[in-house]
């Protein structure tokens, strides 16, 4: 993706609106928030991801001559505006929650503070990137949680929605906790472990399964994982694998890592039978890897039935987040700067949940001091300041009678949004993906186990400061009074 | 996508297997088939798409120095093999069904006849590309069918699974019948109509809705579509739009195309009320566009309730194929060439439906002569020859007692697979996307309406020639006798 110019990766209306602002001499500083309304996949949280690609995209924003030429050919943009585009680059500020952080609905994952023309152009690409990677990172974290410590490998490239979905999806899956990917390009680009052994076609290219296994073991003496379901798992596959393992043992060439992979059939039954056969032949340290249409629910259910599976390869349902293939991130105008002040703006809706939070905002994460677990998030105005030596009253912004009172020094605070671009200059260095993965694992440890449950999890509260709540209420009242 | 080197866009095991073939001096010509087992989204057919990108990918297959360096760093590939990769290019043949064709389960959409090392490497990328675009083209064709002639616009970039999913997805959506896309990059790359007007942020950037509408109408006097749901659709949005339309009419500046867009709320109710308000004000030719979480089922249901919607913008649920976000295309070895003969190979499974069709094959589509509608598809060996002046007996390959007898000259035949690469040279020129779209519309006309029904459609039969059926049966018997 890095090498492509993605400047035109935007919705057409961003450009028609930009021209509108241009022709009306409107280029106020505005604030746009990226946030989402519901956690994907019935999850109690999401993992935000994609920031590194957003940074690359913003850094490389330039309309090339052929882009201008193309826009001119549409006969809707005038020359003054096209001239402006020729010299376009991003001059604003961007704040974001670091990749791999656990996040919750309604809070800004990313905030753009920039001249409106610039802020408008970048809406679509930012949403595209953040929505995609946050979705897959969240899904992966659920699959990894279900696997209860057994390694999960990302195997989905062939079913991903295009090359980027495979490559950036694998990146996000590793952030969410996968140990590596089968996708070689992604492994190269993001320095991830490249994983995999062989396919059915390897077996079928030989006259018989046993020869195929022997040849494979000869070639890869360090890690010999044999795929046993090309013909018949228990009648030929596992017996042939055991035959080869015995030959290796007899010749003193036992591989350091070895085992079998199951790719079809009832994985609980087959893994138990295979485990028994391997153990009886003395191969108690042979691993059993399973793949075949897995997701967090299937893995949880197989483990509940005591399936003997040491390692999981997860493809389609992870790389597409099959049961919930979109992350509903939106990008909403929340303030316009007039003079030194940010004037709050709000989008209304008949659905209370869909009314946006106005103003230039920041987020505090509140941790219980003793346990280090997340208590709640608090969205405040950007110039409010909270410290943990004071009492803190939290209240639900919709059901306002629901209140929690935190005593001084029983909690700690952390600001979630960090500066990424200031005056158009990138001030942030992305960690490596494997570093983000480690950070993300620690982040998930700050959640109560009840929030990580795969179905009907407990929800973490995201509250508004009293000041912010008041501004929102006033704007609502003002609007309805004006009707 | 075109500018990226996708040579490493492959599963790691393709490379370990390649090295296995290399070290064993195995480089026989083999046949691999791309096919799928079930139509996506409960559809009675699929639309195949992605061939142009497969061609680009195969043409550009080259391991660059840094790719070789990367593979060397993994310490699993030896120098002889890395040297071989340095000079690697595709030398084989590829046959495929042209993009935009209606296709059915179990038939090869694409066939690779090439030395096994080459055929193995390209598995993953071919599946990734074909699976993605065929999925979205199929989904789009369903949405367009539901819209019953009203135009459908692709609006999903912000929720697509990464940049390619948005850009190639828009390409596929147009093949499936969308009139254009909001995605400017895709519109530029594939010469598609770029569509869209303005967002809520346009309205919110002004002090009031009326001013925002006026300014927009001034700027875009040829096509003035106003988004009316930022504050309150019927109380402010539609009345303000009508006010602006009246001002335009009074000043003799009525736009050629004008209307409103609804983006939330109950679209049946709101569109009927808005239509009434517009008509009463004399704006009977104002169009009503709807967007907001649409798919084929919602559109069908809104039309059944007589919603007054002239044009549809479809986003998330089309660009992700939300209810079925993967297309299950697989790539299976079906034959190995020994001397002049193709020796059939078959993957077994306990599930009869999952047993592959062996041999080097081709496909005839059989049309009813009078109606031009598709009667069935017939998979045969590549060297079988059928003509329509002979009687033809079709039988179901699983329920073999189900037979259909076609009289001579009551049907016509068409071979579906056409040569794309011969001896590594591309012999095919892709039509433009808009040409493929026209072809695809004609293709869908060859289906009986019963096959296009959105739920529980009639299925088209895909049968095997007697010769092919016999080979499959013999291989099965032979294998089970050997156990």
UniProtKB/TrEMBL annotation, chains A, B:
The answer to keyword Membrane applying to this record is no
Question: What terms describe the molecular function in GO for this protein?
Answer: nicotinamide phosphoribosyltransferase activity; nicotinate phosphoribosyltransferase activity
Assigned EC number: 6.3.4.21
Reaction(s) catalysed (UniProt annotation): 5-phospho-alpha-D-ribose 1-diphosphate + nicotinate + ATP + H2O = nicotinate beta-D-ribonucleotide + ADP + phosphate + diphosphate
One GO biological process term: NAD+ biosynthetic process via the salvage pathway
| Ligase is among the record's keywords | yes
Processing after translation: Transiently phosphorylated on a His residue during the reaction cycle. Phosphorylation strongly increases the affinity for substrates and increases the rate of nicotinate D-ribonucleotide production. Dephosphorylation regenerates the low-affinity form of the enzyme, leading to product release.
Coiled-coil portions: none
Domain Nicotinate phosphoribosyltransferase N-terminal, by residue range, is 8-131
Biochemical pathway: Cofactor biosynthesis; NAD(+) biosynthesis; nicotinate D-ribonucleotide from nicotinate: step 1/1
- InterPro entries linked to this entry: Aldolase_TIM (IPR013785), N/Namide_PRibTrfase (IPR041525), NAPRTase_C (IPR041619), NAPRTase_N (IPR040727), Nic_PRibTrfase-Fam (IPR007229), Nic_PRibTrfase_pncB (IPR006405), Nicotinate_pribotase-like_C (IPR036068)
Cite the Nicotinate/nicotinamide phosphoribosyltransferase domain residue spans from the record: 152-342
Nicotinate phosphoribosyltransferase C-terminal domain sequence ranges: 360-472
Under Pfam families, the record lists: NAPRTase (PF04095), NAPRTase_C (PF17956), NAPRTase_N (PF17767)
GO CC term, one of those recorded: cytosol
User: Which top EC class applies here?
Assistant: ligase
Keywords from the UniProt entry: Glycosyltransferase, Ligase, Phosphoprotein, Pyridine nucleotide biosynthesis, Transferase
User: Which NCBIfam families does this chain map to?
Assistant: NAPRTase_put, PRK09243.1-2, PRK12484.1
Q: Which purpose does this protein serve, as stated in its record?
A: Catalyzes the first step in the biosynthesis of NAD from nicotinic acid, the ATP-dependent synthesis of beta-nicotinate D-ribonucleotide from nicotinate and 5-phospho-D-ribose 1-phosphate.
Give the record's family classification.
Belongs to the NAPRTase family.
User: Would you tell me the protein name for this molecule?
Assistant: Nicotinate phosphoribosyltransferase
The gene name on file is: pncB
